[in-house]
Amino acid sequence: MNMAIEPQKQFLSTTQNYPEAFGDTLSRTKSSSDTLKLTLIDRKRPLLTSSETSTEIEIKRKKYVRTFNETQSVVCNQKFVEIPKRHETFAKWPKDKPLPAVDEMVKAGFFYSGAQTIVSCFYCNGSLQNWTTKENPTTEHARWFPHCAYIRQLCGDELFQRIQQAKRDQKQPHTSSSTQISILDDNTLSKYVAARLDLPISQHLSDKYRRLIIKRCYEDQLKLKLDDFPGDTDLHMACLILQKQIDVIDGKKEKIIIPSKKLQEITDKNMKEQKTLLDTSESLAEPQKSQTQAFNLSPSLNISMCTVCLMDERRLACMPCGHVATCVPCGHSLRTCPMCRRTIDGFVRVYI
């Protein structure tokens, strides 16, 4: 009889001591559960409230910035998916507050929240404020909210990576070079150049290049960079380039080619040739044949344009049908494919 009662007492003792042994674990679980509930509720609100903590909100250069740890897979603000709906919200923008072009704001995915100067993205719910007229909404959106799938599609990989690289470069501390050479006048420059002409590398290069060329390279380097050449190879390359320039130009200014002007001349020449060829073909062809050619040419000119706005190029493929029919802003405002009317489940950014 005593043997049966003893295990029962031991079981009751263990059960009574359970809260004491695992009290800390239970409290931590309850605390994390409450935090999770607050975070989920918070993500439904586009505006800052007093209940949000500093870890959930980042304030950067007086910008109101919401940060999320994961990429949004669904649109946060379905009400503002359509471009006209976002455009209408800016009618209430304060007249005394600066703002970039409304069309650019709408294209970048922003709509006006109605509070101060805060705008929010319809897709990722990210918000910014304190705008100036010279700021680029697309760049600012990609800069502060790299997780947003809409802005990544709008920018494309190349532009998006450039924006992120510029952001990383800004975060790195800029160290002023203490090795820069102070050149006060031409006499000081002459002294520096004369000292460098006596270096072994200068003596070695004098066998291939005239002394005047080496001197000119040193002068240009010290004037522009206020520093020496990083290495002997850089000095050798500078002398080679200067020598080639002198050989080609040969003192004649008309031989100096400016890339931008030369490219414009080539473009104008090609345009004139195409126009002359087109006029000749139209004059020789029959009227009916000319109409057929015009009909065949017109689609080729607009085949890459968005089927909705007819302004931007097609950049989105509708899934699952795969039709490439719209630009990024117009595509995200549609529910069905404009080509086959099939329901759109998602988009893929394409490069044509």
UniProtKB/TrEMBL annotation:
This protein's GO cellular component annotations are: cytoplasm; nucleus
* Taxonomic superkingdom: Eukaryota
Look up keyword Zinc and say if it applies. Answer: yes
Residue stretches making up the RING-type domain: 306-341
The UniProt keyword set, sorted, is: Metal-binding, Zinc, Zinc-finger
Q: Which GO terms describe its molecular function?
A: cysteine-type endopeptidase inhibitor activity involved in apoptotic process; ubiquitin protein ligase activity; zinc ion binding
- What is the name of the protein in this document? RING-type domain-containing protein
State the organism of origin: Didymodactylos carnosus
